[in-house]
Amino acid sequence: MTIRAIDLIAATPWAITAEELERICTIAVRENDSPDAVAARLGRPLENARTVTERDGTAIIPITGSIFRRANLFTEISGATSVEVLATDIQAAIDSPSIARLVLHIDSPGGQATGIGDLAALIHASPKPIIAFVEGIAASAAYWLASAADRIVVSSGAMLGSIGVVASFRPEKDAPTKIISSQSPLKQAGPDTEPGRAEIQRVVDALAAVFIGDVAAYRNTDPQTVAETFGRGGLLVGADAVAAGMADAVGTLETLLASFKPSAGSTGITATGTTMTDTTTGAPTIDRAHLAAHHPALLAELLAEGAQTERARIQGVRAQAIPGHEALIERLAFDGATTGPEAAVQVLAAEKALRDHHAAAQATAAPPVNAVLPPAAQTDDSPQAKTESAAVAILANYRTATGTAA
């Protein structure tokens, strides 16, 4: 039996606006259309790649279009966002040492309820500040995600809300007769019977309760306040959403990004007790003082790892020593930055400069009385031979470490 897209849509609870769900259903029932035809009708290119951009330590992650549980051809051609791709993007930004904060750039009517709660929990638990910026709409599942951020900033015309869950059903045309086991009267319950409708309502209400409970927890309020003042399933615009407690400020993306940059004469950081706080996000700055006060065991582990890494670096630098450059090696070993391969480059450069100097001195010196060197000076035990041998060895080590061709 072939499973149709419309069947999957009907079997899935949605946290989405009614208009967008109707649009998705309309596209899904056109089963004979090619992906190119659907893409053309939607006015979007087929290659709809998601991107994450970085600006001055801020990762900007777009959440646009309808939200689906997994990435597939439908998400590609409809300009949608998938939960699995979004979770990967967010975790990558959290793990990146170059990222200080994340901005979720949201313009979405919502989507499938499946997986949204887990993704919202990931956002809320982030060790780095996450700010949601809404430009356009953050409805239903999209607002669920936005509410989990540390702050919500909205454009003046942005629409927030549509908090709730909906289940959609379409009558099956020429549907086959179904015989359901008598032990499972609510299996495949439909709205055409009173018990079936009551069962569907129970499931939808239970999912909505989870949605409202999460929003209440993330926005530091109670479920009753969310149910009564956060639009009651409708949408609030800009400043009205802020006044209701659904968002924190009205602004633009550029002013939000500019707020992360310290003003002249200010670091953007304030101290409260033993914790440093970023005044632009309200999030604690994870520095040595914060770790010492709140995570001493972790600090001790990090210091031990740092000491071990520094010892290995020093040993790597000292391994590049050749006679005549001991002072240079010691200076590089304790500058706290130079690695073994970098030390090899500097030592070889110093050796070349020394030889060039000796060659120039010999060229201008008076001819020796006896140009024949004593036999002892020509043996392999001479200082010159030892220096040349060490230089050859260090050059070989450098080429091996850096992959430089001979």
Protein described:
With 406 residues, the chain is an alpha/beta fold. It folds into two domains: 5-170 and 190-258, 2-enoyl-CoA Hydratase, Chain A, domain 1; 297-361 and 380-402, no CATH class. It contains 16 helices and 15 strands. It has helices spanning 5-10, 18-28, 35-42, 73-77, 83-95, 116-124, 141-147, 194-218, 223-229, 238-243, 253-258, 288-294, 296-318, 326-333, 340-364, 383-402, and strands at 14-16, 53-55, 58-64, 67-68, 81-82, 101-108, 110-112, 130-139, 151-154, 159-161, 235-237, 249-250, 269-272, 275-278, 284-285. The strands form four sheets. Strands 2, 3, 6, 8, 9, 10, 11 and 12 form an eight-stranded mixed beta sheet that branches. A three-stranded antiparallel beta sheet has the order 13-14-15. Strand 4, helix 4 and strand 5 (81-82) form a beta-alpha-beta unit. Helix 13 (296-318) runs antiparallel to helix 14 (326-333) and helix 13 packs parallel to helix 15. The radius of gyration is 33 Å and the shape is elongated. The chain starts with a helix and ends with a helix. Residues 1-6, 38-49 and 266-277 have low confidence and may be disordered.
